[in-house]
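Amino Acid Chain and Its Fold in Token Form
===========================================
Purpose: to set a sequence beside its fold so the mapping can be learned.
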Amino acid sequence: MSRLPALVLSIAALPLLAAGVALAGDEPPARLLYWHEEDDGRIVVSNIRFSRNDVLELGGRERIEERASSQAMLVLVTNRRMVAYSVYTAAWREVPRKATERLEQLEAEDYSAFVLTSDRVLNFNGRSGVWSENRR
């Protein structure tokens, strides 16, 4: 009989433990991405998740205007494009930049990035590797 209250208490605690596990999955990722800008303009990312390195080559007159990174992704805004890299897709994904577009805001956190320009509102989902955009 003395084990019955402990068993009831354990069963009652199961939903709380399950909720704790679900919340733990929403925590920010561990550091899975490191990056370096080479003197020749190449960007080298080190993807810890897949134990690989990937390189982004910039075009002849392309230059980086702004950069933002998180534990799992990197976003670059150049004079020609917005480029993002995520450890989950292990690939560079880009969106062309409009000629008259001015960058107003760039943020990266966890698996997401936010880009605000004079013409558009963009976001990047680092888990799916998809850019989304709307006109302002």
